Automatic annotation (TrEMBL):
It comes from Brachybacterium sacelli. It catalyses: alpha-D-glucosamine 6-phosphate + H2O = beta-D-fructose 6-phosphate + NH4(+). It comes from the Bacteria. It is an enzyme of class 3 (hydrolase). Pfam families: Glucosamine_iso. Its EC number is 3.5.99.6. Residues 13-226 form the Glucosamine/galactosamine-6-phosphate isomerase domain. Keywords: Carbohydrate metabolism, Hydrolase. The keyword Acyltransferase does not apply. This is Glucosamine-6-phosphate deaminase. The keyword Hydrolase applies. Pathway: Amino-sugar metabolism; N-acetylneuraminate degradation; D-fructose 6-phosphate from N-acetylneuraminate: step 5/5. SUPFAM superfamilies: NagB/RpiA/CoA transferase-like (SSF100950). One of its GO terms (molecular function) is glucosamine-6-phosphate deaminase activity.
Length: 265
């Protein structure tokens, strides 16, 4: 796991956007498949990618995107649907066609069948090249709440009271927050070839510490990412505040800019 502790929102957005650009460059011509997250954490990176598209000619032509999750009961056009969120905050501002942005259909008559079909659609598309993730204060990624199987696939999940409360800020009334979601599983997410996770604020500090340094356990679902070979974690100082090895991560990032032999101090 490559941990970047950044000083401000601009640096955080830049480091995450750089991972996107590297992935787009590597899979040029073959149609990059992006895995996109909603929530507030990735928005500055999306804004930076939109800027690079407008000002620097960064192109997403040929890109397809799969969303991590969707609320059960909300059709794609609903104003609180994750499908709409991602269009408004990212894809409609760059050259990614709406038809190339796929999400589980929250309004499907048979949500369990829709979840299984969505999982298959990701595989049939050749898998995700880069998955961006946020993390819940309880350590969830996508809506894999504590207790999720580390091998789980896309399925219908019940949201914890804590997640419902955390997400109430996006809704006019807290009673309107859906209590179930269709979510990619931990096993599904780990099949992405590259992952970048970003988090900010003291409220995420315990989850980030568990993610990077805790024992792998269903108690903290994000710890399953320790089994993935290509994960970049980009966090601000507050979200990094409980990392015991923070000094080592800063030192290791510094070495990336030095030659093969570090200068003696
Ligand atoms: C969103 C998602 C969630 C969020 C997490 C953090 O698609 O799957 O896991 O990433 O709840 O949300 P924010 O970024 O709003 O703190």
């Amino acid at each position: 796991m490559e941990i970047h502790i950044v000083t401000d929102a601009v640096e955080r957005a830049g480091v995450v956007a750089d991972v996107f650009v590297r992935t787009l460059q590597e899979s040029v011509g073959s149609g990059t498949v992006l895995g996109l997250a909603t929530g507030s954490s990735p928005v500055p990176a999306y804004t930076e990618l939109i800027r690079r598209h407008r000002e620097e000619g960064l192109s997403f032509a040929g890109v397809r995107a799969f969303l991590l999750d969707e609320y059960v009961g909300l059709p794609p056009g609903h104003e609180q649907s994750y499908h709409r969120f991602i269009r408004e905050n990212f894809t409609s501002h760059v050259d990614i066609d709406d038809s190339a942005v796929l999400s589980p259909d929250g309004s499907a008559a048979d949500p369990a069948a829709e979840a299984a079909a969505y999982d298959r659609r990701i595989t049939e598309a050749g898998g995700v090249d880069l998955q961006i993730l946020g993390i819940g204060s309880n350590g969830h990624i996508a809506f894999n709440e504590p207790g999720s199987s580390l091998a789980s696939r896309t399925r219908v999940v019940g949201l914890t009271r804590r997640t419902i409360a955390d997400n109430a800020r996006f809704f006019e009334n807290s009673e309107d927050v859906p209590v179930r979601a269709l979510s990619q599983g931990l096993g599904t997410i780990r099949e992405a070839r590259r992952i970048v996770l970003t988090a900010t604020g003291e409220g995420k500090a315990e989850a980030v510490a568990q993610l990077a340094e805790g024992a792998i356990s269903a108690r903290w679902p994000a710890t399953s990412l320790q089994l993935h070979p290509d994960v970049t974690v980009v966090v601000d100082e507050a979200a990094a505040s409980r990392l015991e090895l923070a000094d080592y991560y800063r030192y290791a990032r510094g070495l990336e800019h030095s030659g093969p032999v570090a200068p003696h101090s």
